Amino acid sequence: MINFTDLLTQAILGVAVTAGFGILFNVPPETLIYCALIGAGGHTLRFALRAVGISNEVATFCGSFAVGLVGYLMARRLQKPRLIFTVTGIISMVPGIPAYQMIIYFSRSDTLNGLTSAVRAALVAGAIAAGLSTARLLTEIRTD
Fold it and tell me: Is 29 exposed, middle or buried, given 0-12, 13-18 or 19+ CB atoms closer than 10 A?
């Protein structure tokens, strides 16, 4: 089961990863704390859902959906582009380990495990895209 210490640890790690990425890619300084909190929220939500038994893909969708919704609200509130908040917010969910494992397996001629890791990475990347896209569809303002 999940405990408060684990959630707090994951939230701190989410802040660190998101803030570090934001600094690396020069997000406006006045938005950095908001980016970090949005990223930590999405990362912690994903962690909590995985801890209670929800699949990685569904948990990632939910985390990126939350990042997309909150990122939209912050973008409107601060009059900044939505991408500042959403791209930094999802960076901790990018499936780096399965992608790395895929390369290792393929380099060792372990095709079955390589394909398994490739599919896992693709499903998580698809879940991120679907979560952000769904949030965008729900918050899109038509000006026709």
Answer: exposed
Three-state secondary structure readout of 42-101: HHHHHHHHHHCCCCHHHHHHHHHHHHHHHHHHHHHHHCCCHHHHHHHHHHHHCCHHHHHH
Question: Per residue in 48-71, pLDDT tens?
Answer: 999 999 999 999 999 999 999 999
143, pLDDT greater than 70: no
Q: Around Cβ 79, how many Cβ atoms within 10 Å?
A: 6
Tally of domains within the chain: 1
Could you tell me the pTM of the whole model? 0.91
Q: Is 2 helix (H, G, I), strand (E, B) or coil?
A: coil
Does the residue 94 lie in any domain?
yes
- Helices 4-24 and 82-90, packing angle to 10 deg: 130
The boundaries of the domain holding residue 72 are 4-139
Distance CA 108, CA 101 (A): 11
| Backbone conformation region of residue 85, classed left if phi is above 0, alpha if psi is from -120 to 50, else beta | alpha
Which two structure tokens, joined as six digits, stand for 42? Answer: 């999405």
- Higher pLDDT residue, 79 or 2? 79
